[in-house]
Every structure is written in C-alpha cells, then in structure tokens.
C-alpha cells in the first residue's frame, strides 16, 4: 500500500472514469498538455487524446455552457474551474442552466456534468484564489455539492460524481492536495457519495467540518483530548444533500455541536446545521450550536489569512465555550 | 442578400440559387400565415388572462419559417423565447408551446423528439449549449448541424461572444442565426453595435452574411447554404436576418413609449407575409382558392389553439418536486413528503 496524495488520488479517479465510459470528457483551461495548474489531470491528455481531455478557451462560462450542450448530446463532461474565484463568470451557466435543465425539460434531458473547483485558502495566494463559494451552490436546487477531505474519498467521490446523473459541484480542498494517505485504489467499497462520516468518535462535543476543515477539527479533537475532553469529529463530505441524520445522531449523544468552515458564517452551512439540528435535537442540546467560520469579509490578503481561517485555537475556544454552557 | 424585393418581385442571386416548386413556395406562405394567426391568437389569449405573457413573433415570420424549413432531421436547434415559427417547423404542437406562457411548465415539448431545445429565457444563455451540442456531434461523427437562434440584443452578451470563440477554434458545426429585429425591448440596434452584426463573425474567423429577414426565400436559401457549410465540417457561420419586431417586446411592453408610428409604418410596407403573397399572385403560383383555403386553415388552427389552451390542466401541486434531481435527494424527498401530508389534511385536497 503506497501513500497517495489527494491530488494523485483525484488523478487516478479521473483516469478510472475516463477508462470506464467513453462519454466522459475532461475539459477546462490548461487541463491538457499542462495537466492543469495543480496537475490534477496530469498525463490524461497524453493517454486519452485531445478529444477527451480538452484544453478550452479561457472563458469559464464557455466551459460550463458548452459542457451543458455536450451533456444534451449524451456526454458526461468533467469541467475544471481553475480557482474558486473564477467560478463566478460561469455562475449563470451553473445556476440558471446546468441546475435547471432537468426541471425545464421535465426530466427528458439529463445533466451529468461535474464542475471541479479547487477551493479554500491557506496557500498564500493572491486575490480570488482562496474563496469558499459552497453556499451559493448548495442554495441552488438541482445541484449536488460535495467535497472530499482525504485521498481515499477524493479517489472514490470523483468517480461517483462522474457516474451521477445530476450535476455535481465538486469542491477540492486545495490546501490538502498534498496531504498523503495510504490506501489501495480500487480496493474496498466506497461510502455513499452523500453520506457524512464519523472521522473520530467522541462523547462530549460534536465537531463538524468538511473539505479543508476536517483536518482542523481532528487536530482540535486531539488537543481537546489532552485536556480530558472527548470530541467526535464528523466529515460532512456532502453539502447538498446534507447528511443531517449522521450529525443528529451524534448530537443526540454529545448534546453539543460546533461547525467549522472557511466560508463566511452568515447563511453558511453552519447556519443551516444550527437550524436543522435545533429542530431535530432540541431536547438533547446542552448548548447552542456554535460556528467557527471565515469572517464576513472579503477573503483577506494572504499575510492575514491565518487570522481569517478557522484554526485549532479558534475551534478549541469554541469547544470550551460549548462545554461551559 | 435578397431573392424577393419589397413588392414581391423575384430577384436572382447567382450565389444563392434556390429552385423550389410552386408547391414548396406555397407551403412557405402557408406556414407564415399559420404561425402569424397562431401568434395573434396567443396575444388574444394573454389579453383574456389565459396566458401570463406572450412574446410575439409578428413581423419575423419569414426569418423563422425560412430558417426553420432549411433544417432537417439531422439538425438540432437552440432558440430564445420568440422562435415559435422555428418550433412550428420542427413539428412542435402550438398548443404545447403555450404551456410555458400559461405557466403549466418551464418546458413543454420533448427536445429530443422535436430536435429543438425548449425556450431559453436568459438572453444568449443557450448559444454555448448549441456549440457544446455541436462539439458532441463532431465527436460522434454525426453529419448534422446546430442552429442557434438569438436576437440583436443577445450579440452584446458575453455568452454569445464566448460561443463564437468556442465554435470558431473548434470548427464546430453551428449556424448562428441572429434575427436582428431592430429592438431589444426599448433599445435600438445602435445601442448594441457600431458595425453591422454579420461583420462580427469576421473578427472571430468565420463567415458572416446579412440577409433580408423579411424575404422567406432568401432566408431559406441562406440558411440552407450555411447549414450545408457547417455540416460539411467547414465550421460555423453567422447569419444576420434583418427584420422588424412589429409587435411590442412582449404583451407587457408598450412600444409607443420608445418608437415612432412612422417607423412601424415603414416596416409594415415590408411585411414578409404580404410580400410572399404578392409574389405568388403575380407569378400565378397560387390562386384565390389557395389563399382562401389557407385563411380557413388559419382560423381552424386558432380555434384549436384557443380550445387547447383553455383546456390545459394545471399540474398537481407535487409537480414542483418533480425532475429536480435524477436520483434521491434527502432534503427534497423529505419536503415532498411533508408537503403531501400537509395538503392531505384539507378536504379539497387533490
């Protein structure tokens, strides 16, 4: 068993998807000869040819819009948007077209399109390269929104997303691209695409993260353990649909919930979880749901991003507050 | 480019030979009269509260029937919300078209059956879909082409310009069919462009041609030629069909606020249906009996459309949850259940 990075796992998963169905295409800026700016599509152009791994003009709306047309024709395009902040030029095509064509055509036209978006901060990047746009997409009916946090999940979830007959916004935690994990590609059975996963069992408080913040939650849980507190960590994996059942089961035992994400807190996934867990676990809750999130500001210049991003200290602080109720 | 002048005299253009039988020419006229009558009936139905809105094609019959009749079964169409005449040529039932405007569904025909996607409301949003579909045809080795229909206003949209770029660099089999009807709601052509629209194509590296959009023969000839060009693998073409939106933008619009009666009169003299009729009469290709027959057929169609529209049932309330996702979605599935249970407690529940 070899240690594989999340980036390599995505590459392997895309390769399996391309091998498995000749209707699968990979398209985007620099995904061909270069292998993508993060090298996620490295080698695919050489092995599958330029008709299936397509370097596109530099136009995000054009990428998603033509993918919609290709799906109309029976293809399964996997689009790469180079960075989170560049998803917005394609916003109309994603939200008003891709998400709605199945409804518009009363189920006649299927849109099996994956839009891969490297997202989140923590890599010292310039403006527009560190954003977390998940709430926009999770708020849009017709889209599915997922985000793997580990190489094994990345490997399986990209294949499940390609196989899905609905459009999937596939958010890749770019600061975890180089995280390694030992797993055997192709071995074992994957978890369902939209199921949350208990990443670390615990008793006293439930920490919920996804994508880049799962590692933050695990680190906070380890630190809390040293203080004698047992934190359960849940990796949501999917934001639409949201596996509220798994979170509710945990909170029914712990009575305390802390949600951690990089996206701004206002109307974010943490707000949704606070409301739905409040509805479902009212009598189990020992404390209000707390959110540790990016602030409601534009993503800051990189010298300040450590102040913006939820980190171990902020999560631990929230754990203390929750336990103190 | 024109093959009929405003008075209906046939003009020859050696680049665009069009050899039609008298019967084919009569059928072009018939189609124009029928869609005009359908369009008028839809406007009336809106005024009577049967439709929420209607976007009239009045004045654009030649542009639409000409291009629509150039298509064949190999081809596929992506259009805006005004292309009822193209949909007619694709065999879409006009009663079916009205469901969208009545508010029973967002899309009222099977795109794969018609070879035409449902109306697109976001201006220019479908141009890229047409190019993507054409890229799929290219990969499949199919020998058809895609017709993408939009108006003069849409040429200002980023998506239309991106569609031009993608189609050009990949040599996609697409015919961009711009009906320049002079007005984007209240904004005249001068607010969209400083050059004739067909010349935009040159900058993207493919041919552009301007055609008299009120001349059904010219529209048919040019669309046929362009589709053949695209199908042959020679890449995209832009056609600018110069026409006029004789009605307001939609039934919600008041065109008297922004354009003069003189202008409307000037274009009324170029009426596409009258022009074809003058040609058929002058050349003896149709007699009074034919015109009478077509008019009667138009009235029958109007009656059928009226009856069909008024009889169109509202969908059941749970339809709001249908077809959002292909597979299960826990949130929607739970909401549907909750909604159904909530509805069921009322005595008049469906």
Tell me the β content of chain A.
15-25%
Total strands of chain B: the figure is 7
Characterize the overall form of chain A.
globular
- CATH class type of the largest domain in chain B: Alpha Beta
Domain Dehydrogenase E1 component (chain B): 30-299
Organism (chain B): Streptomyces glomeratus
InterPro entries (chain B): Alpha-ketoacid_DH_E1_comp, DH_E1, PdhA/BkdA, THDP-binding
Pfam families (chain B): E1_dh (PF00676)
Describe this structure in words.
- The complex is a heterodimer of chains A (325) and B (350).
- Chain A is an alpha/beta fold and 325 residues long.
- Chain A has 2 domains: 3-182, Rossmann fold, CATH 3.40.50; 197-324, 3-Layer(aba) Sandwich (Rossmann fold).
- Chain A is 36% helix and 20% strand.
- Chain B has 2 domains: 22-315, Rossmann fold (3-Layer(aba) Sandwich); 317-350.
- Helix content of chain B is 46%, strand content 9%.
- Chain B has helices at residues 22-47, 61-70, 84-89, 94-102, 111-114, 127-140, 158-170, 200-204, 216-231, 261-268, 272-282, 288-311, 330-344; strands spanning 76-78, 146-151, 174-180, 183-184, 187-188, 208-212, 237-242.
- Chain B has a 5-stranded parallel beta sheet, sandwiched between helices. Chain B has a two-stranded antiparallel ribbon with strand order 4-5.
- The model of chain B has no long low-confidence stretch (mean pLDDT 97).
- The interface between A and B is large, with 46 and 41 residues.
- Chain A: Its cofactor is thiamine diphosphate.
- Chain A: Residues 4-179 form the Transketolase-like pyrimidine-binding domain.
- Chain A: It comes from Streptomyces glomeratus.
- Chain A: Keywords: Oxidoreductase.
